[in-house]
Design a protein that fits this description.
This protein is α+β, with helices and mostly antiparallel strands. The protein has one domain. It is built from 3 helices and 4 strands. It has a 4-stranded antiparallel β-sheet, with helices on one face. The mean pLDDT is about 95.
C-alpha cells in the first residue's frame, strides 16, 4: 500500500513466529478509522490484502527460516494501529536453529 509499519518485532515461540507490527495505517486509513464503520472497512480491506498475499508471505517465511509454514493467523486493531501475524510452522524453529 506504499508504506510499511513504523515498527516490527518478531518472536520465536517453539513452532510459531509471532510478528507485531505497529504504525500500520496510512493517513487515509487513520482518518477512515475515526468511526466504527470506518474501522470495519479498514479491517476488511487489510484482511483482503493478507488473503491475496498469503502464499507470498508464507514463501518468504520459508525462505528465511527453511521451515514451511502450516498456517497464518492475523488480526489488527485499527485504533491502536497494530497488526499481529502468527505463522505456525511444520516443526519447532527454536530446535532447528540449535541444529
Amino acid at each position: 500500500m506504499g508504506r510499511g509499519p513504523s515498527d516490527v518485532k518478531a518472536y520465536l515461540i517453539g513452532d510459531m513466529i509471532l510478528a507485531r507490527l505497529k504504525g500500520i495505517l496510512t493517513p487515509a486509513e487513520r482518518n477512515l478509522a475515526k468511526t466504527p464503520q470506518g474501522v470495519e472497512a479498514v479491517k476488511q480491506l487489510r484482511q483482503m490484502l493478507i488473503a491475496q498475499g498469503r502464499e507470498q508471505l508464507c514463501e518468504q517465511v520459508y525462505e528465511i527460516t527453511g521451515i514451511k509454514p502450516t498456517a497464518l493467523y492475523t488480526d489488527l486493531d485499527a485504533i491502536l494501529e497494530e497488526r499481529i501475524l502468527v505463522f505456525t510452522l511444520q516443526r519447532n524453529l527454536e530446535t532447528a536453529l540449535g541444529e
